[in-house]
Specification:
Structural class: alpha/beta
Shape: globular
Strand order of the largest sheet: 1-3-6-9-2-10
Order of helices and strands: EHEHEHEEHEHEEEHHEHEHHEHHHHHH
Radius of gyration: 23 Å
Strand content: 5-15%
Number of helices: 16
Length: 346
Amino acid sequence: MPIPVRASAAPQVVFGDPFMAQLLALAGRVARTEVTVLIGGPSGTGKEVLARYIHDRSLRKGENFVAFNCACLPESMVEDLLFGHEKGAFTGATQRFEGFFEQADGGTLFLDEVGELPLSVQAKLLRVLQEREFTPLGATRPVKTRFRLLAATNRNLLADVQSGRFREDLYYRLNIFPLQLKPLRQRPGDIVPLARAMLERHNYIAGAMRLDESAIAALLAHEWPGNVRELENVIQRAMVVAEGDTVSAHHLGLDASLPQDMGAPMVVMMAVSAADESQSLLSGAEREPEASLASRRVIQEAELILETLKASPTKTSAAARLGISERTLRYKLARMREHGLVAAEL
């Protein structure tokens, strides 16, 4: 069961890109108000980090910051977690549970992936925002609440409104002050500062480490479809693979054309397994010896993904073996389909 987080000192937000400097300046200004903020942006770009930044610079910074992910839960469970229940409200309700509306009273409630809320729950959320009260399951009297709402989504909510997936009245209640995070590839100034901060944060893996020039070049050249979350996976994997206190490009696993003598068994094994299935990926066509580095990288990455999928019971476990999120794996599979490197049913 998720537990409310009581914020203490404001966390440091690592950035180096001018876009993030401007966005944080706006976030700092709106933090001092009670205005509802809707944070948009692709998955893994740091929407919850931005929400915590706003909370920790608000007048509510000493109160609870309660974060709730609205996705991947049954409707009944979403209602129970948000509204809470009284003892005996249903079978198994052996004690009273304070829902997140109540836990966030006086503080901040952050609804992540708010676009995934079922329509029935959207209607009830709208009522809570209008009346500032709610009724727990099994209760006979409403409970007052004074939380400040921050919400985030990776969806185009306006398009969802037009298609009937999201309530128009709730959309305008949430979208009072929008803040839009860009994908990491569009914030190149953030990549190296974030990577260095991650090396420091995860120094329990292999001690203090640094990036050399080849690693920095590789990080800046990568497209980062999984955004900050993918970057953190890559850095942690590199810290395991690297020998000594220096992370180089070949430790990152971002370039499939790796030297065979690099001394990193895991990445060498990945490259070898990729080579074994090259003909099946190309549907019998011979690979061109003059293929560009970029095209070879695409092909070898696809080979590695297919090999891992074959050896894994689920896509979730395959993503874990690859060191990426399941969302990033789905993105890569979609790109592979576009290039004809994988069957449509995968």
